[in-house]
Amino acid sequence: MDYSQFLAMKQEIGLLVVFLLVFLYDTFMPKKAQNSLSAITCIFFGLFTLAGFCPCLSYDANAFSGMYETSAVIVAIKNILNVGVLIVLIQSIKWANSESQIMRRGEFYELLLVTLFGMYLMISARHFLLFVIGLEAASLPLAAMVAFDKKQYESHEAAVKYILTAVFSSAIFLMGLSFVYGLAGTLYFDQLAFAVAIEGSKSVMLIIALIFVIAGIGFKLSLVPFHLWTADVYQGAPTSVTAYLSVISKGAAAFAFFVVMAQVFGAVYSQVWEWMLYALIVLTITIGNLFALRQRNMKRFLAFSSISQAGYIMLGVIANTTGGLGSLMYYILVYIFSNLAAFGVVAAIENATGKVSMDDYNGLYKTNPRLSFAMMLAMFSLAGIPPFAGFFSKFFIFTSAIEQGSIAIYVLVLIALINTIPSLYYYLLVVKAMFINENETPIATFKSSVSERLGLWICVAGIILLGIVSCFYSSLLELTNAM
Amino acid sequence: MESVGSIIMYWVVAIAIILFSVLTVTTRKILRSATYLLFTLFATAAVYFLMDYQFLGAVQIAVYAGGIVVLVVFSILLTSKPGDKAEKLASKKRALGLLAAFAMLCVSGYALLSRCGFFAKMPEMEEVGMKRIGAELLSSGEGGMLLPFEAISVLLLACIIGGIVVARKR
Amino acid sequence: MDQITSVLILALPLCMFLLLGVFGNKMSHKMAGILGTLGMGVTLILAYSTAFTYFFSGSELFIDAAGNRLQSVVFDHTWLAFTDNLVIKLGFLLDPISAMMLVVITTISFMVHLYSLGYMHGETGFQRYYAFLSLFSFSMLGLVVATNIFQMYIFWELVGASSYLLIGFYYTKPSAVSASKKAFIVTRFADLGFLVGILILSFYTNTFDFVSMTSNPQNVLASTGGAMFMGGSVLTWALVLIFMGGMGKSAMMPLHIWLPDAMEGPTPVSALIHAATMVVAGVFLVARMFPVYLMEVTALEIVTWVGALTALYAAIVACTQVDIKRVLAFSTISQIAFMMVALGVARDTIHEGVGYMASMFHLFTHAMFKALLFLGAGALIHAVHSNDYTSMGGLRKYMPITHITFLIGCLAIAGIPPFAGFFSKDEILVAAFENSPLWGIWMTAVAGLTAFYMFRLYYRIFWWNEPDYEHHGHVPHDAPWTMTLPLIILAAVSCVAGFIPFGELVSWNREAYHIHLNIPVAATSVIVAVCAIALATVMYRKENSLPDKVANSVKGLWTAAYNRFYFDELYLFITHKIIFNLVSRPIAWFDRHIIDGSMDMFATLAHKASGAIKGLQSGNIQSYVLIYLMGALLIGVVTVVCVVIL
Amino acid sequence: MDINLMFYLIPSLIMFCCGVYGFITRKNMIAILISLELMLNAVDINFVVFNRFLFPGELEGMFFTLFAIAIAAAETALAIAIIINIFRVTKNIDIRDLNKMKF
Amino acid sequence: MFENILIYFVVIPVLMLGGLALCKNIKQIRAVAVVGSLALVGLSIALLLGYLEQRAAGATAEMLYVDSWTWFAPLNINLAVGVDGISVAMLILSAIILLTGSFASWKIDPLPKEFFLWLILLSIGVFGFFITIDLFTMFMFYEVALIPMYLLIGVWGSGNKNYSAMKLTLMLMGGSAFLMLGLIGIHYHSAPEGQPLTWNLLEIAQNNAIDRNWQYFLFPMTFVGFGVLGAMFPFHTWSPDGHASAPTAVSMLHAGVLMKLGGYGCFRVAIYLMPEAANELAWIFLILTGISVVYGAFSACVQTDLKYINAYSSVSHCGLVLFAILMLNTTAMTGAIMQMLSHGLMTALFFALIGMIYGRTHTRDIRMMGGLMKIMPFLAVCYVIAGMASLGLPGLSGFVAEMTIFVGSFQHTDMFHRVFTIVACCSIVITAVYILRVVGKLLLGPVQDKHHLELTDATWWERLSTITLIVSVAAIGCFPNFFAELIKFTFSENIFKVLGMN
């Protein structure tokens, strides 16, 4: 046994330390000190996030004989997720300290950190067993988190739907894995890549295994047709959890997906999974948009919007280049800020008034101009309107997808681009509701809490700066190009 | 040519797996369903024994049959009144279920059958002793499972916490 | 001839326009009127001196050693360069016809300015009126001195616009508004032809310049390289299209319909624009391009036909109208058609191109006597407050000056010697007979009709039966001096203008030659005219039932002519029924429902599709996983089929 | 007759398909859970027999199954907790009633 | 970075945004708007003078004031700026219309601050678009200019504003979807094998490396993409509805400047970078634009809403712009740019006047009004002048632009092109029909509605706004050669390249 190998996993260990600190604080501190639990967690996690940017972490390492890998890019990916989680944590303070949640908030933070740990594993895993454990660690505790809102029936319903479909999809995923194992006799990524290359694209077994694997991860990414749970779960889950699900969980899955696709199945890219992804992307973007068109519940609406966003994210995967990974990372970074801004507003309004219908947002600008402004920025960013970050991320992901250069990719990008029209439509519906529609009884002016405002400010700053300030994208691309 | 005993053993196990699986999902009494599941799991354990993975078979019986099924049975008892019976299935639903299962069967079956390598006979294997299992489980080298072992502990902890949170009344 | 004078001729009216247009509202009526008239007066003097210098100075700039007059470009500034060769220049071309036109325009314009001081007295918008008059004068002057065809087109448009503004002067009157609109659109349609003609011509010749085109018409012909389009040579097409522009402005059939309606404008305006100057622009255009037209006889024949038909048509219609201004308008159309015919029948090979000279001569004399007639009509209307001759009659006693001058005008137009019209019309008839007896006889007949309807008008106004003026409130009387003075001057000119040795001054190749009366032709035309006058005397001198009897005996023709052969109805049909209802409305409908509808359809489709697939999201996870599984399997199978099997 | 690999794979596949069928047709949530167990179990068999038949020198497949059993146990526990939870709220564990959120 | 004058076209509006954000009351807002737009007008005039000076001094480069600052280094995206005569002309146009638009929205209500914020944001897009020569930044500014329209129409518009705003935004974004693909495609073919790819227009043009087959694909993409904003048939239907619902200043800016982005882009990107495809495929778009020209005019004939009339008229006039651009010769293209200037000014004038009339009568239905000449002579006279400009009266801008286009287009040696030119010429008659119809019904004739008799004539800011525009229209109309030369110099080089291939 060589425990020194664990030292390669500095970020995981750091995360576990934060987890333990929160756990211990929650369990053993006296009731009085408990009041500051949320703040303590945010601070711990904030420190941890900051530490993640320490250049001493950016090394390439391989531990457990190739089962675990870390590199500058992977660290960057985890940092992106960390930032997102930090924002989620900040935004959720108000909710976590609400009367119905206060006795469970410790568990909320713990579960959240464990899921993040699972995502770390997914991203760093170079062995499918570890990957599966990460996947499960990233989804099973989430089911408990979805069920957190005990007073809401929807929360329970969402939890059941989530856990059952999650297990179903992981069964399918494992089925695919077993096929892969049967083909290759190993679960190490590097050896698998070898075996896949030998196997070639003409293998029925490989193709079927591949689609099962894609379906399993596609479930987390909520790609169509593996997406149907998304809206119900997003709607039922507490808004902070929904935000977490739609942003962090999805982002991590996207990275993992890229890694699996590129590293394991890279050999059959152009023959097999490029086309599978092609179909999935077209379906995801289109169906996601079509569903989003008619949603009036903000959370459901954001769910479908996030489905179609997943389609755009997949463009980075289908590019299958280092530039693609860079754009993917950038896209997710921007997506985190944009979507969290939207969820931040939704959560703030829900916490203050309990309203989540788009119709309730009518005339919001008159009463809560700042919130509406933040929401508008989020919507514009999600829709890809310059000069907000979403425009840049969309443009770059399209650019890197097209780099491959075949006419088919042009057509795919065109389809994706045309799909931005309906998506713009429904994003504008929200803007319209807030700015244009008249309402006799608009949501009354309320003062959102410091944490909510802080979270929104961070998001708004991100939306505005991430695009215009070019260093974010440039440095990400430099990182991936150096791979 | 293998021993007749093992062939007979195989057929018994195979038929048990198939039969009990089918019964599990077709019986209309939920408790029976759980029971058939138990039998299926036992049959699976038998497969492991046939494969000479005694340790795994033991785990299967202990954890799956002993743990999970008991859990399931308890929850059944908790949630349903005795004599509860599933009403008859709508034929449409059954058709859809059959369709899905059949499609899965065909596609995966075709995939499996398309591999001639999968018609391999069972090779000889030295017995997998507890010592080797233990060593490999906690090794960090090639094929070692130390990291997953540690990782799954976190997962299990999380599931415990999650379970508690969910199950707690308030 | 210095540049400054020529610039001033153009600039003065323009400045007047801007001055009166922008600051008019701040001025009193009197001030504005006097300012405008003064400006025009100065212009008149400058123009006269220019023309005098051109014709009589004998400067080598204007006449060569052989006694041929020269075309002199006084100045020519680039205004807009399309390409190196195709350049719109704004310049001042001085040659016989432009010099003549300068005289005509400034004379009539000044008369009208003067006349309007009285006629428009007290009207609201008096300043605006003078501003528009100045604008018109500027544009018209610019048109005649154009050095290139595009400059002409520019001022051509400007006179159209000023005509529009002046016809619609009484803008609260719906009839005036629609008349102005009609005038503009009809001429605009003609201008389209003009423009396309210019485009075609310039495409081949690569120049807009009149001098280079007319001095070497063979080059123009050669540059087309014999290109054909739909059976005609491109040059014919170009010339006919350019002529189409002329047809519009000069109210040739079938584009004449705007002119009678244009009488809605103030009467002095009709005198200036719709009798003397603007309407002859078409004639001027053809004359300007005449050497080029000579290259394509087909084009000239078309000109002749159009002119001849119009002359006859307008003369017949004029016999039946009751509105005195309309009679005059149709007579104008008819007389302009005379000029067109004269140009059409002119050939360089026949009689030194007498038709060209005749046309210009008639243009000159016609301007004088027609302006006279219109201004006289204005005085009458001013006195009677009606355009209809039915409310006039016996006015000779009340308005002696008007009577005499009007009579002179009538005699002039009827072609009775020694009045101006006789000489010019005689030349036209000569040219027509020279070309073909058909045209000679035709035009003589039209000349007879002219005499008839003019005297019909004359008798109905000044003789016939006298209505009860007392009963109507006031007795008609002669107008103030500002109005009578122009009448007298113009009448005097009409008396003597015929004796101007026009051939010496104007000819197609600018060579001087002598006009000699062709006695048989002159005699015939005079006899015909006298007969026609006699007939008119019999019918209209005293109130009687003869006219009605005659009208009833040819009822169909009479009604048709009275309704101007239903041209207006035809146009109404074309514009409202066809253009509006059959083209515009369907297009608008198509745009709203098909084009826009298809855009909306995308949206509707998206919503429909959204509604159609909402069943997928049934809320039941069993169907979710079913779709999940079937989707995965489907993609897998399709991939297998595509990759492995195919 | 030789017992080859396929002899084990097919029953396991059938077991998996039974799980699928059960998931789609059963209305009791716990029955669905049971179906899921069948599916997971089938996957386990796959791993094991692949390991045994094709790669007898290694233990990767077996370990995978070992871990999968653990994961399955955790899943089941959590799922049952959630199901019990919903039973508390609605006194009903019919999956068809879980359709308050749709479209 | 800040020594280049061009950057101030973006900096000033950004400062204005900042200033507006600090404003407390309407007076301050107006002050910021007017001072800022005056500064922009001054800047554009300074640019014009500087540009002419450099040209006079013998600068023969295609673009002047060229500069480039790295932005996204890995993708070689730069903030590259540079202007030629066309951009200078467009910048002046934009500045003038922004200024007059600010005057026209003197009394905007409600939320004046937000209104101006969005308006200025829009103008950032416009100015940015005209100064950049980098495809990416160009596209970015293009989209920046589009999106504020939604709120400007949605919040401050009238009538069926929600529908119109949405339609306008979605259709224009649809166009930009094609555009984005086209631009990325161009980028990937911007340099020969082995050389670094670029987004810089000048470099791409110099490399001339876009394969002919790719041009056939990318040219339609970009042309249609920009064409949608240029109201090309059949993608023009956003224009009538959008303009009809938009508030005055927005209509002015949108029809006056934003639609010019389309024509400018078609030239600057589609034709300039892909001349071969332009040459081969021009006929398809010629047919479409030719249809636009006539079709828009005919549609305008039967409309009863003033703004619809003007919007369809814009379709016709902007169609002429694209039509002329596709003729691929110096004269026609010069005409196209002049038409852009001219249409921009006069349509802004139209919309300003319509807005002012609407603000008084509260109707835009010409059947409900009449005889306004008597009631509000100033506005009516201005309307007549605008109408005259629109139908091509010499001395006003419409004439010179149209004539340049017609003469230029007719110089094409191909019969097809010339026949289509004649078809396009027909529009001048139809234009006269609908303009005079409006003038006749709206301004002339007896007063239709007795209540209108109490209405007042223009206020000083309205007068200022309209007079500025009229003077500009007349300036182009009277001294066209100045503008023609400004524009033409740029073309001769580029077009030479295009025609040289024939």
Radius of gyration of chain A: 21 Å
Order of helices and strands of chain E: HHEEHHHHHHHHHHHHHHHHHHH
Oligomeric state of the chains in view: heteropentamer
Please, how many helices of chain A? 19
Structural commentary:
- The complex is a heteropentamer of chains A (483), B (170), C (646), D (103) and E (502).
- Chain A has 483 residues and is mostly helical.
- Chain A has 19 helices and two strands.
- In chain A, 76% of the residues lie in helices and 1% in strands.
- In chain A, strands 1-2 form a two-stranded antiparallel sheet.
- Chain D has a single domain, classed as Helix Hairpins, CATH 1.10.287.3510.
- Chain D has helices at 5-25, 29-54, 60-90.
- The longest helix of chain D is centred in the C-terminal third of the chain and has 31 residues, at 60-90.
- The radius of gyration of chain D is 17 Å and the shape is elongated.
- Chain D starts with a helix and ends in a 13-residue tail after the last helix.
- With 502 residues, chain E is mainly alpha-helical.
- Chain E contains 21 helices and two strands.
- In chain E, strands 1-2 form a two-stranded antiparallel ribbon.
- Chain E is globular and about 75 Å long.
- The chains are: A mainly alpha (483), B mainly alpha (170), C mainly alpha (646), D mainly alpha (103), E mainly alpha (502).
- Chain C binds chain D through residues 614, 617-622, 625-626, 629, and chain D through 20, 23-25, 32, 95-96, 98-103.
Note the main attributes of this structure.
heteropentamer, C: 646 residues, mainly alpha, two-stranded antiparallel ribbon, 4 strands, 71% helix, E: 502 residues, 3% strand, globular
Describe the SSE topology.
The complex is a heteropentamer of chains A (483), B (170), C (646), D (103) and E (502).
Chain C: H1 3-23, H2 29-56, E1 72-81, E2 87-94, H3 96-119, H4 126-144, H5 149-167, H6 174-205, H7 210-215, H8 217-223, E3 228-229, E4 232-233, H9 234-249, H10 258-261, H11 267-276, H12 281-288, H13 290-295, H14 297-318, H15 324-345, H16 354-384, H17 400-414, H18 420-435, H19 437-462, H20 481-496, H21 502-505, H22 519-540, H23 546-553, H24 555-562, H25 567-612, H26 621-645
Antiparallel strand pairs in C: 1-2, 3-4
Helix pairs in contact in C: 1-2, 1-4, 2-3, 2-4, 3-4, 3-11, 3-16, 3-20, 4-5, 5-6, 6-9, 9-12, 9-14, 11-16, 12-15, 14-15, 14-19, 15-16, 15-18, 15-19, 16-17, 16-18, 16-20, 17-19, 17-20, 18-19, 18-22, 19-22, 23-24
Chain D: H1 5-25, H2 29-54, H3 60-90
Helix pairs in contact in D: 1-2, 2-3
Chain E: H1 8-22, H2 26-56, E1 64-72, E2 77-83, H3 85-104, H4 112-131, H5 135-146, H6 148-156, H7 161-188, H8 201-207, H9 212-229, H10 238-245, H11 248-273, H12 275-301, H13 306-325, H14 330-361, H15 372-375, H16 377-390, H17 397-410, H18 415-425, H19 427-443, H20 460-478, H21 480-500
Antiparallel strand pairs in E: 1-2
Helix pairs in contact in E: 1-2, 1-4, 2-3, 3-4, 3-11, 3-14, 3-20, 4-5, 4-6, 4-11, 5-7, 6-7, 7-9, 7-10, 9-11, 9-12, 10-11, 10-13, 11-12, 11-13, 11-14, 12-13, 12-18, 12-19, 13-14, 13-19, 14-16, 14-17, 14-20, 14-21, 16-19, 16-20, 17-20, 20-21
